[in-house]
Structure to design on (281 residues):
């Protein structure tokens, strides 16, 4: 078990005075299997009242509006979370049994359809089908597919953006965790394995010192269903463990963007983001 304190600052600087803005933030984790939230808080500047709810995919959302003129919007999300390793139960469904089980729940069926962001090129589909042909089970195939995608994409910040599709990232064989995760999701869905996008945080050091604050960033990984939901970090080629803090889940990045909104005012804004992570136990 590890205990992490996360300070996530994000917002927009506008090219002039904004008269009103309407926003949603998905920056606070929720307690779940392997994860216990001890404290979480969201500060908004300028000050605003918020409406909090859990969205369709199970992510905590803070919705708010600012109706007074402002040139900058800043949010500070602070969380203290205990995280444990997530053991993977042995579950060896055959392909026919998996297909039958998928039909029993909407949450599985909905994570089979491709989106514009996850739709893979034919080369990725062929790669996934080849892995399935040699795999002993859907669980084994899913892990091999996620690893294969992670091994083939170079992690390189700055070459993609939040609108980049899986096909575009594959063409360049470069991208960040968002791109690698969406490619893995697309590959898994193409062979009939439900897969979903997970957003959160990752402590960058495998064995971080207690009390030392380090620069971090938002992170993304994949979960697939093969009789149970199982997570994997294809960017770092590691299982989900006590370094990962989950914030949200969805079909792709668009469902879990940390901050989004619309505003009335001059054209042009700049997003700023900083993340600090401190291991406290």
């Amino acid at each position: 078990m590890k205990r992490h304190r996360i300070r996530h600052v994000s917002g927009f600087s506008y090219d002039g005075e904004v008269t009103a803005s309407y926003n949603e933030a998905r920056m606070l984790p929720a307690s779940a299997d392997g994860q216990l939230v001890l404290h979480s808080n969201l500060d908004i500047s300028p000050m605003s009242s918020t409406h909090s709810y859990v969205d369709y995919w199970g992510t905590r959302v803070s919705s708010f509006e600012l109706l007074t003129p402002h040139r900058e919007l800043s949010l500070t999300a602070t969380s203290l979370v205990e995280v444990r390793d997530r053991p993977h139960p042995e579950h060896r469904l055959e392909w026919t049994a998996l297909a039958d089980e998928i039909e029993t729940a909407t949450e599985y069926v909905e994570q089979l359809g491709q989106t514009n962001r996850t739709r893979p090129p034919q080369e990725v589909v062929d790669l996934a089908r080849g892995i399935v042909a040699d795999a002993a089970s859907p669980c084994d195939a899913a892990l091999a597919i996620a690893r294969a995608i992670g091994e083939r994409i170079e992690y390189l910040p700055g070459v993609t953006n939040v609108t980049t599709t899986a096909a575009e990232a594959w063409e360049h064989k470069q991208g960040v965790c968002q791109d690698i995760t969406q490619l893995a999701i697309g590959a898994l869905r193409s062979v009939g394995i439900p897969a979903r996008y997970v957003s959160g945080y990752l402590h960058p050091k495998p064995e971080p010192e207690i009390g030392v604050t380090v620069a971090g960033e938002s992170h993304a990984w994949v979960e697939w269903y093969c009789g149970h939901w199982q997570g994997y970090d294809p960017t770092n080629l590691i299982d989900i463990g006590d370094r990962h803090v989950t914030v949200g889940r969805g079909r792709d990045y668009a469902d879990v963007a940390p901050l989004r909104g619309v505003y009335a005012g001059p054209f042009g804004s700049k997003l700023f983001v900083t993340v600090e992570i401190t291991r406290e136990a």
